[in-house]
Amino acid sequence: MSRDHVPSAERPADNAETPFLRLLARGAPAEAYEQPVLLARAEGRPAARVAALEEAKLLALRVRSEMEGRRRREAELSALFETAHDLAGLRDLDAVLRAIVQRARSLLGTDVAYLSLHDEAEGDTYMRVTEGSVAARFQQLRLGMGEGLGGLVAQTARPYVTDDYFKDDRFQHTRAIDAGVRDEGLVAILGVPLMIGRHVIGVLFAADRRARIFEREQIALLGSFAALAAAAIDTANRLLETRSALDRLGRANEIIRDRSGVIERASEVHDRLAELVLRGGGVHDVAAAVSEVLDGPVEFTGTDTAPGAALQASRAEGHAVRHGRDWVAAVTAGGELLGALVLGGHPGLDPVDQRTLERAAMVTSLLLLARRSAAEAEQRVRGELLDDLLDARDRDPRLLRERASRLHADLDAVHVVLAARLDTTAADADREADARRRLWSAASHLAATGHGLAAARDGGTVLLLPLGPDETATDLARRTAGQLGTAVHEAVTVGASAPLEALAAHPEAVAAAYEEGQRCLEALRLLGRAGDGAAAEDFGFLGLLLAGDRDISGFVGRTIGRVVAYDQQRGTDLLRTLDAYFACGMSPARTKEDLHVHVNTVAQRLERVGRLLGEDWQSPARVLEIQLALRLHRLSTVAPH
C-alpha cells in the first residue's frame, strides 16, 4: 500500500511541512493545501500541530505562488524568443502575425486577440488577424483615426486599456464599431500601438468578454509582442521593396547570389544568439558574437557613455543609425532606454548587416529584462524576509536561518538596523516615487553585496546589515549614508540602532531596533545634519531618549565609568567629590567646606578626575552629561526599601 493510502493514525510522525512538500512535488492545485489542516482538525490533533500545519501551509502556498510566477515569466520569455525566431526566419508574414496573436492571447489568457493595420489609401485601420473571434461583423471592422479604442491608440501612439468598453467615454463611440464589439461580446479591451520608428502602422489588441483589470506586466508583454509584429511587418516590407528593386533593375539572379552570403551570415547570427540565450550568456557575449560576424568591434555601452544624438535618433526611428564611422543601435524595452550596441569602424554597412545589429540589440534588451526580473525577484525575497523580521511573523529560528542562508545572510552574526530616507522632496508625486524607487534599488544592491537585507518602509528604506570587525554602529551608518547618497545622487540620511545579536532567536528585537534607528534619523534631520549617518551613542545623554532599550548603564559607563572604576579599585572618593563640586556651583572653596577637607585635597581630586575624563570635562556640554550620569548612578545604586 502506498504512503498516500496509509491511514493517518498508522503513519509515522511527519514534520508539519511534509504533506505540503508532497503537494508541491506533484503540482497540486491551491485548494488541495487545505486538506492536511482539515484532516488534522477532524482527527482532533493538538492545537500546536494544527497551528504548525497552518504556518507550513502559508509558506507552501507562497513557494507555489513564486514557482508559478517563475514558470509564467519563463513562458513569456520563451514565447518572445520563439516569436523572434519566427521573425528571423520570416517566410510568410501572415503566419508570423497569426503566431504573435495566438501567443499573446494564450499568455494573457484573454478570450480574443486581434491585430489591425493602417490603410494609407483609406486613412483608417482594418482587421488583419483575429484569434478567438466568432462574429463576422467584428472581423470586418474598419476604424477611423480617433474612433473607438483602437483608433485612439493609433492616433496617440500610446497604449490604452478599458475594463468596460461601453461605459468608457475617453474615446469616440460609433454605431458601426459598437455594433461589432457588441456582436463579439467584448467588455475589457487592451490595445498597444505597432510602431516603426515614430509611425504607427497598426494596433495589437487583447480583449475579454467580461470585466477585467489588465496588469502593468501584461501591458508591457503585449507591447513586446507588438514590437515583434512591427518588426515582422517592417522586414516583410523591406523584402518587398528589395524584390521590386530587383525586378526593376533586371538583375534578380545576380543580386540573390550576392545576398545569399549575407543571409547565411544573418542566419548564423540568429543561431549563435539563440545558443547564447539558451546557455545563459550575457550582453557582452552577444556583442562578441555579432562582432565576429560583422567583422568589426561591437560593444554594449550604457546610456551615459553612448553618443547622445545618435542614441536618441536610433531610439526614435527604431533602427541602427550611422555616427561618423560607427553605427549605433539603441537597446530599448517597453519605451525604456537601457543602452546601445555600437559597431565601430564601419562607415558603410549592408542593410542586412544593419538589421543584424538591430536584432542583436533586441536580444540584448530581452537578456537585460530577464536579468532585471531575476534581480527584482531576489530583492522581493530579501524584502519579504526583513518584513517578516520587522513584523515578527515568523518566529521559528531554524526557518529564519534557512531563509537567510539562501540569501547568503547570517542571522547569528552581529547586525545593525538602519533607517534611510531621502532628504529632498520632489516637485511632484511621480518624481518623488521615482526617487524612492532609486533609493530602494540602491539599498537592495547594497544589502545583496553586503550579505544583508533591505525593504521599503515608511516612505524610505530599512536595511539589516552585518557589523564589520572593529566597526561601530556609527561607522556603518555614515558609510551607508555615503554609499546610498552616491548611488542616487541625492542626500540620504541614515539612523542606526545599537548592535543586535542572535536575531534568529530574538526576531522581535528587529522592530524595536528599527524604531530606534528612525528616532536617530529624525534627530539628525532636526539638527540640520541631513545626508549624515549616526547612532544613538553619538547624541550623548540625548541618546537615552533615542535608544529603544534606554541603555542607562551604558550611558553611565561611557560618561563616568572610569571614575567609578577608580573609586572601586582604590577606595577613593572621587564620585562624592564630583557631586559636592557641582552642588557647590563648581567652587573648590565651598566644596572643601562641604566635604570638611583641605582645599588642596579638593584640587588634587579634581585633577585626578580631569585625567580620567579628559581635559574638556568642565565644558558646558560635558558638565551636563556628567551631572546626569552622576544622578543616574546614584539612583541605580540606592538600595530598594
Instruction: Give helix % range.
Output: 55-70%
Rg to the nearest angstrom?
A: 35 Å
Question: What would the average pLDDT be, to the nearest integer?
Answer: 79
Strand order of the largest sheet: 3-2-1-6-5-4
Main structural class: alpha+beta
List its traits.
641 residues, six-stranded antiparallel beta sheet, elongated, alpha+beta, disordered N terminus, 22 helices
Quick take:
The protein has 641 residues and is an alpha+beta fold.
Give an overview in words.
By secondary structure, the chain is α+β, with helices and mostly antiparallel strands. The protein is built from 22 helices and 15 strands. The strands form 3 sheets. The protein has a 6-stranded antiparallel sheet with strand order 3-2-1-6-5-4. A 5-stranded mixed sheet has the order 12-13-11-14-15. Strands 7-10-9-8 form a 4-stranded antiparallel sheet. Helix 9 (about 250-280) runs parallel beside helix 12 (about 350-390). It is elongated and about 120 Å long. The model is unreliable at about 1-15 (pLDDT under 50).
